[in-house]
Every structure is written in C-alpha cells, then in structure tokens.
Amino acid sequence: MKTILITGASTGIGRATAELFFARGWNVVATMRTPNSAREDGRWLVTRLDVTDPASIESALQAANARFGQIDVLVNNAGYGLVGTFESMDEARIHKQFETNVFGLMRMCRALIPQFRARGEGVLINVASMGGRLAFPFYSVYHATKWAVDGFSESLQFELAPLGIRVKLIEPGAIKTDFYDRSADFVHDRSLTAYNDLVDKGMRRSNAFGARGASPDIVAAAIWKAATDGSARLRYPVGSDARGLLFTRRLLPDGVYRSLIAKQLLG
Ligand SMILES: NC(=O)c1ccc[n+]([C@@H]2O[C@H](COP(=O)([O-])OP(=O)(O)OC[C@H]3O[C@@H](n4cnc5c(N)ncnc54)[C@H](OP(=O)(O)O)[C@@H]3O)[C@@H](O)[C@H]2O)c1
Description:
By secondary structure, the protein is of the alpha/beta class.
C-alpha cells in the first residue's frame, strides 16, 4: 500500500488531497501546523509539521516512517499569499513569505530526497500556481515565490529523473479556499495615498476572481494524476482559467497580454 505525505493539510487543497488519497485506499500522512483531525484509522496519520520549523519536519517524518515504513509521494502544498502594495511590505514579511513558500518547500525536498534516492523511486509534487508562470497586480512577492518554485522544480527534474524520482508542478488557477481571506497576509499603508484607489479596485477584482474559484477537489484530482500516471510530465495546469491564461500568455505578444490583464484587474 502506498503512502503520501502532504503539507498544509488542515484546509483547502491539502485537505481535499488527503481525503481523496484516503478514499482511494492510500496511507495518508496529513501534516499541519495545528493538528485538527479526530479520524481514528490506521491508514490516517495526522502530525504537526510547520515547514519553517526543521525540528517539526524531522519528528513528522519519524512518525510517518515508523507507522508506514516509507513515504512514496510528497506533496508540498503549504503556502499562503502576501498581497498588497510592495512598498508597504517590510523585510520581515517578505522573508516569511519566502521562508514558507520557497525555503519550507526546499526543506521538505531535502528531507525526502535521500529516501527516494535510496529506493530509486518517489514522486515529489510541488503545488505552485498558474501564478508561477504569469503575474497579477498586488501579488508581487507571492509571484516571486511561485516563479522560484517553478524554476526550482523544472531544474530539479533534470537531476532527479535519472535516479527514478519524478518531480511534478501543480499549477492551479483560482480555487475557492481560505487562500483569499483567512490565510492571506494583506498589507497596504493607506498613507501612501497614490495607491489607494488602485489597490482597492485591484484587490476587489482579484478577490471576486477568487470567490468564483473552482473547488479544491479538481486540484486533488490533478495531484492524484501526477502521483499515479507514471509519466515524465512536469506541469499540470488546473482549471479552465489556468489553462486559458497560460495559453493566452504563450500566444500573445507580451505587451498585448499585459494590457489585457491591466484592463481586467485595474481598468
Ligand atoms: N486557492 C488558490 O486560488 C490557489 C491558486 C494557486 C495556488 N494555490 C496554492 O495552493 C496551496 C494551498 O493553498 P489553499 O488554496 O488550499 O489555501 P488554504 O486553505 O489557506 O491552505 C493553506 C495551507 O497551508 C498551510 N500553511 C501555511 N503556512 C504554513 C507553514 N509554515 N507550515 C505548514 N503549513 C502552512 C495552512 O495552515 P494553517 O491552517 O495552519 O494556516 C493551510 O493548511 C498554497 O501553496 C497556495 O499558494 C492556491
């Protein structure tokens, strides 16, 4: 029986992924900062794991290996968005965003790759975003983290494929989860008046986009495909918006594409 370990499994995409793999008979290690699941089942292990806390990663992996013997698939899902005006963001906030979305993800890869390499197999699934290949206003630092995850993953797959380890990038469009409200770290200093109208309009429109987002179940289904299809495919765009926008971005000249986005979100 196969085992999957998921970070950020308390809500949203992580939670939906944990439920899907459990329903399909896998062992599930649902890791989260604040364990919140009361399910009693030998195939379901909830452990505390904060991707910014190396000791919590080590003890979660020990618990997972002790219960299930090995981990076959890692899903790096934990993440959140630092949003708002870049000028309002202090260094601590910017570092925390990278610490979670990029360094936390790399820390998880470093923790799991040795056991994958020793067995000559394993699947490493990074939840990036369509925003890892394109960008929207007022998400500058969040996009920087997802573009980092994108480049990191594309490079890593070259060096891990010959070892039998498959690297996958999940690229969701707008998904209706806590991402746009509870989890979002929104910052705008209103004394920077030049931005006020623009940021109000931009955030209203992008939050409306999020509110119309698809179910996290479609991302869980894409993660299932990535974990089980046995292919060398790297990218899995999820949702009609992600597929449409990534295609449009490839098709249109850069300036035309950007003026479309500006008109949609700020015009
Ligand atoms: N929703 C979208 O439209 C969308 C689109 C593209 C990509 N994504 C990506 O999808 C992933 C999941 O987001 P979601 O939409 O499912 O939002 P969500 O419901 O807010 O889930 C985010 C998860 O990440 C966890 N998390 C945050 N910081 C963490 C840390 N330091 N260590 C461990 N876990 C941490 C949260 O834990 P707590 O419960 O403790 O806060 C929560 O479980 C993120 O990487 C996000 O960037 C989302």
